[in-house]
């Protein structure tokens, strides 16, 4: 029963709306461990979020193993876009809705429009890219091309310039050549990926990728370090570009830090109650966060 959750000291809540996966990426063991894709009916999601908002949460993050496949197993086959629309309509007091990692191949027109134009959907897109080279993407059995991922980011930024992009990227996937690696590194710069999660490839027993010709482990670690360095530089430049702007920040514990809509961390001197939404003028940028004055 979600009707009467106790008051929460946390500003943000995670709501899992989907679990499992019906795809067969060659490096992944999730389908074997989590089973097929399963979605929580929209009514249960809305009930849960309504209770969380009543308990004091200002932001909800929708999560799932394969979030953008939401609804494929439900009657009527509603999409993630349908779910987001329903949440925004039926929970008007929810200030912020954020999406966790989504698949570039599954962003339909409805979801695109919400990401592009809906102010309560945060301008923060985390993409499950995994690689930036078409041959490697094919060997991973991913369902998008490099050009499709780049195009999605460009089209969204055309209509929502403040969009901050994150991505998962694997370094040293089996058979990765220097040229393929460079395509992945360049993707970080082309898409201005400011929230990067870099993983050195590690074979999982029983997966097709574990049987492919492996890249030397030392080279895998070296390539992962290069990707992290590139991502850190792109992030520093992005943060520096935000100095002088005014951002809406959701205060989190202990009260002198928070997250902007674009998921940049903002720190400030004066404490505010966690869960408060403030306006902060950004006065400085560090390597991994911003410093601001409350307006």
TrEMBL record:
<dbReference type="InterPro" id="IPR002792">
    <property type="entry name" value="TRAM_dom"/>
</dbReference>
<dbReference type="Pfam" id="PF04055">
    <property type="entry name" value="Radical_SAM"/>
</dbReference>
<keyword id="KW-0808">Transferase</keyword>
<dbReference type="InterPro" id="IPR020612">
    <property type="entry name" value="Methylthiotransferase_CS"/>
</dbReference>
<dbReference type="InterPro" id="IPR005839">
    <property type="entry name" value="Methylthiotransferase"/>
</dbReference>
<dbReference type="InterPro" id="IPR007197">
    <property type="entry name" value="rSAM"/>
</dbReference>
<keyword id="KW-0411">Iron-sulfur</keyword>
<dbReference type="GO" id="GO:0035598">
    <property type="term" value="F:tRNA (N(6)-L-threonylcarbamoyladenosine(37)-C(2))-methylthiotransferase activity"/>
</dbReference>
<dbReference type="GO" id="GO:0051539">
    <property type="term" value="F:4 iron, 4 sulfur cluster binding"/>
</dbReference>
<dbReference type="InterPro" id="IPR006638">
    <property type="entry name" value="Elp3/MiaA/NifB-like_rSAM"/>
</dbReference>
<keyword id="KW-0004">4Fe-4S</keyword>
<dbReference type="InterPro" id="IPR023404">
    <property type="entry name" value="rSAM_horseshoe"/>
</dbReference>
<keyword id="KW-0479">Metal-binding</keyword>
<feature type="domain" description="TRAM">
    <location>
        <begin position="240"/>
        <end position="295"/>
    </location>
</feature>
<feature type="domain" description="Radical SAM core">
    <location>
        <begin position="7"/>
        <end position="237"/>
    </location>
</feature>
<comment type="function">
    <text>Catalyzes the methylthiolation of N6-threonylcarbamoyladenosine (t(6)A), leading to the formation of 2-methylthio-N6-threonylcarbamoyladenosine (ms(2)t(6)A) at position 37 in tRNAs that read codons beginning with adenine.</text>
</comment>
<protein>
    <recommendedName>
        <fullName>tRNA (N(6)-L-threonylcarbamoyladenosine(37)-C(2))-methylthiotransferase</fullName>
        <ecNumber>2.8.4.5</ecNumber>
    </recommendedName>
</protein>
<keyword id="KW-0949">S-adenosyl-L-methionine</keyword>
<dbReference type="InterPro" id="IPR058240">
    <property type="entry name" value="rSAM_sf"/>
</dbReference>
<keyword id="KW-0408">Iron</keyword>
<dbReference type="GO" id="GO:0046872">
    <property type="term" value="F:metal ion binding"/>
</dbReference>
């Amino acid at each position: 029963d979600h009707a009467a959750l106790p008051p929460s000291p946390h500003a943000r809540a995670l709501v899992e709306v989907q679990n499992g996966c019906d795809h067969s990426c060659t490096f992944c063991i999730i389908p074997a461990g989590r089973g097929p894709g399963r979605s929580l009916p929209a009514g249960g999601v809305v009930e849960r979020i309504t209770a969380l908002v009543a308990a004091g949460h200002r932001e909800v993050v929708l999560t799932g193993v394969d979030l953008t496949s939401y609804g494929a197993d439900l009657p009527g086959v509603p999409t993630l876009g349908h779910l987001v629309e329903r949440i925004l309509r039926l929970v008007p007091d929810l200030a912020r809705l954020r999406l966790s990692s989504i698949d570039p191949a599954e962003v339909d027109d409805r979801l695109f429009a919400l990401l592009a134009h809906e102010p309560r959907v945060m301008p923060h897109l985390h993409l499950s890219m995994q690689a930036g080279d078409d041959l490697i993407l094919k060997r991973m059995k991913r369902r998008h091309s490099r050009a499709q991922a780049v195009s999605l980011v460009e089209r969204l930024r055309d209509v929502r310039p403040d969009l901050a992009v994150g991505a998962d990227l694997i370094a040293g996937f089996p058979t990765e050549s220097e040229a393929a690696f460079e395509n992945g590194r360049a993707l970080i710069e082309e898409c201005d990926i400011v929230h990067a999660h870099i993983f050195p490839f590690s074979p999982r027993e029983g997966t097709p990728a574990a049987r492919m010709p492996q890249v030397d482990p030392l080279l895998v670690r070296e390539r992962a370090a290069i990707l992290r360095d590139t991502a850190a530089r792109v992030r520093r430049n992005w943060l520096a570009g935000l100095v002088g702007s005014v951002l809406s920040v959701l205060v989190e514990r202990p009260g002198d830090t928070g997250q902007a809509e674009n998921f940049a961390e903002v720190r400030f001197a004066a404490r505010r109650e966690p869960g408060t939404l403030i306006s902060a003028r950004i006065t400085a940028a560090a390597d991994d966060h911003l410093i601001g004055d409350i307006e």
